[in-house]
């Protein structure tokens, strides 16, 4: 059974003293009390125990379907790993360590869901600056019979360059629709942030550190595909890359049994064209 106190980050509990924990909790309370302005001061604060799941009330009526805490060895029947580097669990985190070339990823293999709420808490670190930086990417990828194609059906919870200060979000739908937005963000070494997406029959909303950032409602963006989560350290083809890692503290999925306690009204993302689509089929 899920215990609500598990929303307090395990890293803070393991790291520390009672004083440090008290500081984390008080910072989280202060964060929760601020207005939901994603570009304001609150958006730059560490989320602490606050995240979209408890802020928007997704936990009631058995809403939490799974809670990946990455304790113990990586379950390779549950996670499919691709690419050079090393993917493993480490101190209760899913860790993707890169090589100096090539993309490495870990995708959940359990049956996908068309609708629901996905959220993860992650951080990243880069080793050196002489070469090309990796991109950190968390996506929902389709697990339908047609397969992923060339990414023209994916939804990104986040996509950002190592050492950068901007997080990108997108929805892609066939044949070549692209709905995207970005958010200026402090993305320092080992800095924790939470990222979530809510997918319903009528809208898709993105959340960062418990704040709703964008909400898409245009019908052509709402594909009804079944999705599953994939974490990726994305390389530039043919380039020597700076070694790096991404670490996920937890990954959670909620169904839509509970109505959000707060509005998810937010600006629409910008609609453009996805130029790398490999199929025009619907």
Which keywords apply here?
single chain; 282 residues; mainly beta; Jelly Rolls; eight-stranded antiparallel β-sheet; 3 helices; 16 strands; disordered N terminus
Structure description:
This protein has 282 residues and is mainly beta. The chain has one domain (51-273): Jelly Rolls (Sandwich), CATH 2.60.120. It is built from three helices and 16 strands. The strands form two sheets. Strands 1, 3, 4, 6, 11, 12, 13 and 15 form an eight-stranded antiparallel beta sheet that branches. Strand 11 (193-199) and strand 12 (204-208) form a beta hairpin.
**Please, how many helices?**
3
Got a strand count? 16
The major pleated sheet works out as:
8 strands, antiparallel
Name the CATH class: Mainly Beta
Number of domains: 1
Distance between the termini: 40 Å
CATH topology: Jelly Rolls
Quaternary structure: single chain
Q: Which overall shape is indicated by the principal axes computed on the Cα atoms? A: globular
| Helix and strand composition category | mainly beta
What is the H-and-E element order? HHHEEEEEEEEEEEEEEEE
Residues in helix, %: under 10%
Taken as a percent bin, the fraction of beta residues is 35-45%
| CATH architecture designation | Sandwich
Mean pLDDT: 84
Low-confidence stretches: 1-48
User: What is the radius of gyration computed over CA atoms, rounded to a whole number of angstroms?
Assistant: 18 Å
């Amino acid at each position: 059974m899920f215990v609500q106190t598990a929303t307090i980050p395990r890293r803070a509990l393991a790291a520390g003293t009672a004083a440090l924990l008290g500081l984390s909790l008080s910072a989280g309370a202060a964060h929760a009390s601020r207005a939901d302005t994603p570009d304001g001061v609150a958006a730059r604060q560490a989320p602490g125990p606050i995240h979209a799941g408890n802020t928007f009330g997704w936990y009631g009526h058995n809403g939490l379907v799974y809670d990946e805490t990455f304790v113990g060895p990586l379950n390779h029947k549950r996670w499919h790993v691709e690419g050079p580097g090393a993917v493993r669990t480490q101190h209760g985190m899913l860790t993707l360590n890169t090589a100096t070339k090539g993309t490495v990823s870990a995708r959940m293999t359990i049956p996908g869901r068309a609708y629901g709420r996905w959220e993860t808490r992650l951080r990243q670190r880069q080793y050196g600056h002489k070469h090309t930086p990796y991109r950190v990417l968390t996506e929902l990828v389709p697990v339908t019979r047609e397969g992923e194609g060339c990414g023209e059906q994916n939804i990104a919870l986040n996509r950002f360059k190592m050492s950068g200060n901007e997080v990108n979000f997108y929805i892609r739908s066939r044949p070549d629709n692209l709905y995207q937005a970005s958010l200026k963000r402090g993305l320092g070494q080992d800095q924790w942030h939470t990222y979530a997406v809510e997918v319903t029959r009528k809208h898709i909303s993105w959340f960062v550190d418990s704040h709703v950032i964008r909400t898409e409602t245009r019908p052509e963006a709402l594909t009804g595909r079944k999705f599953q989560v994939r974490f990726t350290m994305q390389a530039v083809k043919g380039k020597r890359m700076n070694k790096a890692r991404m670490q996920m503290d937890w990954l959670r999925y909620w169904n839509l049994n509970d109505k959000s306690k707060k509005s998810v009204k937010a600006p629409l993302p910008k609609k453009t064209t996805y130029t790398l689509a490999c199929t025009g089929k619907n």
